[in-house]
């Protein structure tokens, strides 16, 4: 996404954000919106009713780490119409003295809530991501859990670069109200950010590994993890993730500590 296009998209969504009462703030220079799930619902309903194309991103410790590694990701995140704070953002914002509206605004929870709303309203949904096997498991499970969910298409996330245009054309032709992309970061953000105007989706949201949770391959994180310990639970489930979590979390804490050290006494 180039800077001019990103500015146009964000400006085009500014009225929707205003009507939904959404406040954009920043966590150490990284965009984050202070929202409740009702704010998210209102924004999504407005985006659908006005046939807008809105990119919804999730901000977390991993995105901050990757944003510093890939400047392109930081640019794309800054131009998202809505930037939802996962629990690390709540912890970080509390530490620097600026609390957010609500906890647990991460990909799995918000996707679950939006699927429930789509089921009630008859909205159309497209899924892109995960392995073919896990994606099929998720589609089967969603058909059992949501009796009125209108799934217009789905495709796994392991496609070749040469297939990208075909996938974009397929999604655009179907014009889904909700497009969930679960390909991991920064791949999913690059895909949405670079193609948001061509996808014809009212809401395009990156949800990371959420598809595996809905497929039943991974368990929903229990309540005790909701204060910043989901990484520990995921590491217990899959020890291969531990090293990455330790690197990302250490980097996140370093950024917070550095900010507090240089801003001591200014709050």
Write up what this structure looks like:
This protein has helices at residues 3-12, 14-19, 37-49, 61-69, 71-78, 87-95, 107-121, 132-145, 164-174, 187-199, 210-214, 230-237, 242-262; strands at 23-27, 30-34, 54-59, 82-85, 124-129, 150-155, 178-182, 203-206. With 267 residues, the protein is α/β, with parallel strands linked by helices. The protein has a 6-stranded parallel beta sheet with strand order 4-3-8-7-5-6, sandwiched between helices. It has a two-stranded antiparallel sheet with strand order 1-2. A hairpin with a 2-residue loop joins strand 1 and strand 2 (30-34). The protein is globular. Mean pLDDT is 88; it is low at 3-9.
Summarize this, please?
The protein is α/β, with parallel strands linked by helices and 267 residues long.
